[in-house]
Amino acid sequence: MTKNETYGKKAHELIPAGAHTYSRTDEVFPSNAPRIIDHTKGVYCWDVDGNKYLDYGMACRSVTVGYGFDRISEAAIAQIRNGNTASKASKVEVEAAETLVELIPWVDMIKFAKNGSTVTSAATKLARAYTGRKYIVRCKEHSFFSYDDWFIGNTVMDCGIPQEIKDLTLQFNYNNIQSVKDVFEKYRGQIACLIMEPVDDQEPRDNFLQAVGELCKEYGVVYILDEMITGFRWDIQGACKYYNVVPDLVTYGKGMANGFSVTALGGKREIMELGGLIPGKERVFLISTTHGAEMSGLGAFIETVNVYKDLQVTDHIWKMGRRLCSGLKEIASEFKLSEFFYITGAECSPNMVICGKDKKPSFDYRTVFCQEMLKEGILMPYIAIAYEHNEAEIDRTLDAGRKAMKTLADSLNGNVRDFIVGDVIKPVFRKYN
Ligand SMILES: Cc1ncc(COP(=O)(O)O)c(C=O)c1O
Prior knowledge:
Blueprint: H1 3-14, E1 37-41, E2 44-47, E3 52-55, H2 58-61, H3 70-81, H4 91-103, E4 109-113, H5 116-131, E5 135-139, H6 149-152, H7 163-166, E6 169-172, H8 177-186, E7 191-196, H9 208-219, E8 222-226, H10 238-242, E9 249-252, E10 263-267, H11 269-272, H12 295-311, H13 313-334, E11 341-344, E12 351-354, H14 363-375, E13 378-379, H15 391-413
Parallel strand pairs: 3-13, 5-6, 5-7, 7-8, 8-9
Antiparallel strand pairs: 1-2, 2-3, 4-10, 9-10, 11-12
This protein binds pyridoxal-5'-phosphate.
């Protein structure tokens, strides 16, 4: 047995699903993907058998500079040497808060945590406390906000969540302002907050983000933008800056600290301070975690912001994204595949769409493409570009893309299953295993 097989088997015996994120499990990758990673550096990872891959997953998009980027690692190590944690708030905790508040003009106060779900859930709780209302309205097209009940209970994976909780989350459609008005009108006076990402693979049209903000004001609804993916990618000040929109509350995570576990809930003082110690006010138990202000992560966050400013990280991500997207589009067109392989979304966060003979997105054909990229040493479950993806990496990816596209074309002309070794990749979000 290879080490991948040995550790892979153990992982499934010891950890439900074999990993701590559903999007990092074996079933969402082709069978020739590395099963267990030994270490990572830059934009590369090495599996336990010593195979090296050029990585476009970048740890669920959380690493936006590069794995183990020395300046950032040193900042984290300095905090580890500083004790890493303490019985009272630490200096780096205050400095990190100051860094974020100074960076984002619409953030007056912040709370740090370790996971994105913690801060999005905290945002909804705070909104309920602020408004005294019970309903949450979430964007239907955006795939994930939290593993907590208020969100997962509103998806097909609602197993284990009581109906009473499910009933409290409602939906609207992105870029459809009427759908927002409809739900606000139907539940007038009962909606605490609306939550969405500023953008995913559909970009905002007709000032949608601003129009939602206006409606939130009119109906007294707290406007929450989840910048988990878009923050520190569209711009150092996130997609809010890029699209010129100001939310009441905002959440950040991936990209804040180059893969160190740091997330944040920020926003208007008037709302945030409910989680504070205002004398006589009812206590809102906002976020209170043992590890939320771990010094190493916060040291990494401060240095990540410095690196972003010194090296213009987001400009580079956009530039490499444009190079990759235009190259892939050209190759798809060379193979007359433009209707079967195309890119949607902003070039700083491109979304690959791979279709079958019926021109609808297909996991079979996606498996073929990803499997063929892996044969060339490229791990590309989706595309997350980091600062250390340079021209050389992009060009190598395009060379591999040409080979993969050739096989994709062949599979569209034949029986796709003949081109797949092992199982077809599966979506994370589905009702049954
Ligand atoms: C938009 C969005 N919000 C929230 C989360 C939850 O973040 P975490 O995995 O850190 O809990 C994710 C994670 O993928 C996300 O993509």
